[in-house]
Amino acid sequence: MRIDVVTLFPQLFDGPMTESMLWKARDRGLLDLRFVQIRDFTTDRHRTADDTPYGGGGGMIMKTQPVVDAIAHVRQGAPTNVPVILMTPQGRVFNHAIAKELSNHERLVLVCGRYEGIDDRVRQRVITDEISIGDYVLTGGELAAMVIIDAVIRHIPGVLGAEGAADRDSHADGILEGPHYTRPPVFDGLGVPQVLLDGHHAEIERWRRKEGLRRTWDHRPDLLRKAALSEDDQFALAEFAEEDAELMRRHGG
Ligand code: 6GU
Questions:
Q1: What is the CATH number of the domain that holds 118?
Q2: 112-127: per-residue pLDDT in tens?
Q3: How far from 95 is each of 87, 102, 174, CA to CA, in Å?
Q4: pTM for the predicted model, two decimal places
Q5: Structural domain tally of the chain?
Q6: Cα-to-centroid distance, 183 and ligand 1 (Å)
Q7: Are 29 and 133 in the same domain?
Q8: Which ligand 1 atom sits closest to the C-alpha of 138?
Q9: What average pLDDT does range 128-133 have in this prediction?
């Protein structure tokens, strides 16, 4: 997969994109990650990429022409249907399903805004999708682009060690993952659930599923409305509900 990032600050990507899993993906040729400096497409002596907003108000707006030209540059020779995605708090909210969907594309173009925003005519002319990573505002789209790159490439076959591991992640089937443990067997008086030490594989899988459901019940009950739940899952949820009701009876709510 090839990803082109259109940005005024390519250096911001240096650390996160050259370590660990990201680097392995690039090293193995599974991810061709490139950066385009918007400032290289400015036309004036001062390489001006921003200007004051029409209508007044604070802040600076990124100019249309350098961004449009930078995008045209990376799209040369690319199929016409390559997604050109604007990083913006006004976009659709990123999630597991969108990460997986984007991973099916041969190429992506991620456009990072800075300052107060980009002239809307960039969006009107060349943007095909707009993504936000959550309901808060970042100083620029670069951190959001890094989040998206990381989450997307986990779905490319061969990027994660164990094949298909992304399908076992939290959110993959609509529920969270349960807890994990490694040695030692006791830390500061805290043990490890006996079922994990016994080595009975089917029991371990049942336990993991149930603990994942318990986490989801406790932290993200909103996810349970959309999750695909088996009869055993429903039974576990009924048990959690009963436990909660029992706590309420004993301690008041
Ligand atoms: Cl994609 N960009 C900016 N600037 N802020 C954000 C965001 C993106 N997603 C959440 N906040």
A1: 3.40.1280.10
A2: 998 889 999 999 999 9
A3: 14, 11, 11
A4: 0.94
A5: 2
A6: 39
A7: yes
A8: 5
A9: 98
Strands 50-51 and 61-62: antiparallel
Domain containing residue 43: 2-153
Question: What gap in Å lies between CA 16 and CA 30, rounded to an integer?
Answer: 17
Report yes or no on 193 lying in a domain: yes
234 within some domain: yes
Could you write out the DSSP letters of every residue in 53-109? PTT--SS-EE-HHHHHHHHHHHHTTS-TT--EEEEEEEEEEP-HHHHHHHTTSSEEE
Q: Is the peptide bond before 79 cis (omega within 30 degrees of 0)?
A: no
Is 69 known to be catalytic? no
Residue of the CA atom closest to atom 8 of ligand 1: 88
pLDDT at position 171: 83
Residue 29 in tokens: 């040729």
Query: What is the chain's mean pLDDT, rounded?
Result: 95
The active-site residue, picked from 4, 10, 50, 89, is 89
Q: Of 43, 79, 50, 84, give the one whose Cα is nearest residue 64.
A: 50
Is 176 inside any structural domain?
no
Q: What is the pLDDT of residues 31-80, one digit of tens each?
A: 999 999 999 999 999 999 999 999 999 899 999 999 999 999 999 988 89
Cβ 141 under 6 angstroms from ligand 1: yes
pLDDT tens-digit series, residues 160-217:
876 567 887 888 888 999 999 999 999 999 999 999 999 999 999 999 999 999 999 9
83 is catalytic: no
Q: What is the CATH number of the domain that holds 236?
A: 1.10.1270.20
The torsion angles phi and psi of 153, rounded to 5 degrees, stand at -75, -20
Instruction: Return the amino acid letter for 219.
Output: H
Is the beta carbon of 144 within 6 A of some atom in ligand 1?
A: yes
